Amino acid sequence: MSVALATDADVRAAYARDASGLERTPESVARPATQGEVAELVMQAAAEHRSVTAAGGQTSTTGASITDRGLLLSLRALDKIVEIDGDRRIVRAEAGVLLGDLKRACAAEGWLLAPDPTSEDECTIGGAIACNASGARSLRYGAMRPHVSALSVVMADGAMERFHRMRIEKNTVGYAAVQEPVDWFIGSEGTLGVVVEAELSLTPLPARTIGMAFPFASEADALAFVVSARQATGIDPRCLEYCDRQATQIVATATNDPAWKAALAIVYAEEAGDDEPPLESWLALAEQHHVIEAAVRVYDGEAALRDARHWRHAVPATMHERAAPFRAHGGRRVSTDWAVPYAKLARVLGRAQAFADAAGIAQAVTFGHAGNGHPHQNWVGESPEHVLRIEEVVERTLKVVIAEGGTVAAEHGLGKLKARWIPLQLGARQLGLLRAIKHELDPQGMLAPGNLIA
Ligand SMILES: Cc1cc2nc3c(=O)[nH]c(=O)nc-3n(C[C@H](O)[C@H](O)[C@H](O)COP(=O)(O)OP(=O)(O)OC[C@H]3O[C@@H](n4cnc5c(N)ncnc54)[C@H](O)[C@@H]3O)c2cc1C
Q1: Is 233 in the same domain as 171?
Q2: Which residues form the domain of 347?
Q3: pLDDT tens digits for 194-204?
Q4: How many structural domains are present in the chain?
Q5: How far apart are CA 336 and CA 374, in angstroms?
Q6: Distance CA 245, CA 249 (A)
Q7: Which residue's CA is the closest to the ligand 1 atom numbered 23?
Q8: 354-373 pLDDT, tens per residue?
Q9: CB of 134 closer than 6 A to ligand 1?
């Protein structure tokens, strides 16, 4: 049996774009339907010294899922949910299953699959693992990594291997970097192996979840509220999401809520659990930070929470739309993914705004996971030169981020767009170890070339 490689221009063009705004046309495309076919394709590519880049939903914002070198291996047809085992609290699924579909299948049986990237209805399990994706609720549940308990991986020579996370509390055998092979592949951006199946851990669905939107008359009040909410007792936020002045305008338009028109920042929070949510404590804390009381909104029940999710998603969707007309002229959306310790967020955002002013570029539209110190600053780069000027400002900001103990990429990975910034964060020894791991697992350097390691 051998899987056909498509080389038609139309097929190759259909896999040449992701959400980064870049375009890379692969030399060929394969769409295997079984795990065995993936192994066969990778083995064949290794024998022919051909590169292989795995792709899932191609929602990558960094160009990680596109390539102009060798084979683009689409995993979308690996779409079986293998089992949901409530006794072991795990779900097993193939790499091409959409995360949103898997979450709904688990929820139907009373289980929460916690990771919640905004792109969950378009992204695959394999892609979410390869990027160590996270979401608003990662404030409470963490990113993908803690939820991955086992992986089946096709290695660079085509061998299929299965890795289980150890279930022990103590271990002194070997260096930390070698103890849990499952961790090698989480966040590896397709550079160490092709994930074909994953076992993920489940949590009981909370009996009740409420969302709360707190509008403020200043960004400083909103950011101070986030810090207080993380440190307060009596409340337990499952997410703390932030919209700056410009993002607030977008959501005020999306909701058509007149009370929000006067707001200059919004914080969205959720409480989830089996007890009555501590709404009074939240309101009291928000009042201390001068919340616009008449504009506070509470979302109770599935339909209301869906509404809240809808308006929050209006911000990235709007930025995507605004950037679209400039693509033909080499423009694109520039979006940051840096994070700092949450208490330093206001200070670092202030520095970033000063850099933009000094460079004479517009202020970013900023939204995202303030509870994790993780905002997304967004600009529309109208031309290649404009993109370059924006990225100079981003790079100045990243240097501050690193000096404050942060990271240049917290959830979207580095891909091809941000790989050049890895030396800002990792020292020479760390980079040497990174390359040594890559060389050990992929000696030909054939997996996802250009991702992560520039
Ligand atoms: C509108 C929008 C919102 C987003 N919101 C979030 C968010 O809230 N949080 C977040 O973390 N990210 C977010 N992202 C980024 C992106 O959606 C996620 O990183 C997502 O998990 C990628 O999954 P995918 O299936 O689309 O992967 P792809 O984009 O296809 O690939 C991403 C990377 O994973 C690798 N890969 C894919 N499948 C496999 C596999 N089976 N084995 C090995 N490697 C593989 C690829 O080689 C590539 O390096 C967003 C993107 C968009 C466009």
Answers
A1: no
A2: 322-412
A3: 999 999 999 99
A4: 3
A5: 9
A6: 7
A7: 127
A8: 999 999 999 999 999 999 99
A9: yes
